[in-house]
Design brief:
It contains two helices and six strands. By secondary structure, it is α+β, with helices and mostly antiparallel strands.
Length: 128
């Protein structure tokens, strides 16, 4: 799995217990999944359809640097199913896993549209 994004846990990211607020982490994951999908599907009109059960394995505290990893599990007709792992960059401890995040490719009218992709592509390969 490739870890594309790093976040520094700051005071405004904490819950009353002094640990990373789960809602903040889920927002970061949703944004990373959207950005990853936009690049993979070469379309800025991509939305989150589904996020499976999430499992918190460990906490993050102020000052921790976390990494968000995303990988493709499956290409659907108009969707992309992703897997996500968030870990502490320094200790490599897993903080959270999300087994399935389904992103949907949309047309200009906001309707699901086939994307025609079947494998992971890299932007450098599109720049002939």
């Amino acid at each position: 799995m490739k870890f594309h994004t790093r976040k520094w846990v700051k005071p405004e990211d904490l819950n009353p217990n002094g640990t990373l607020f789960g809602g903040r982490l889920l927002a970061w994951i949703d944004e990373e999944a959207a950005l990853y999908s936009v690049v993979q599907l070469d379309n800025q009109r991509v939305v989150t359809k589904f996020m499976s059960e999430i499992n918190f394995d460990s906490k993050a505290v102020q000052g921790d640097i976390i990494e968000i990893g995303i990988e493709v599990k499956k290409f659907g007709n108009s969707s992309l199913t992703l897997n996500c792992v968030v870990r502490n960059m320094m200790t490599r401890d897993t903080i959270i896993t999300v087994d399935n995040i389904i992103m949907v490719n949309l047309d200009e009218n906001g309707k699901p549209e086939p994307h025609g992709k079947t494998k992971v592509e890299f932007v450098r390969d599109r720049l002939g």
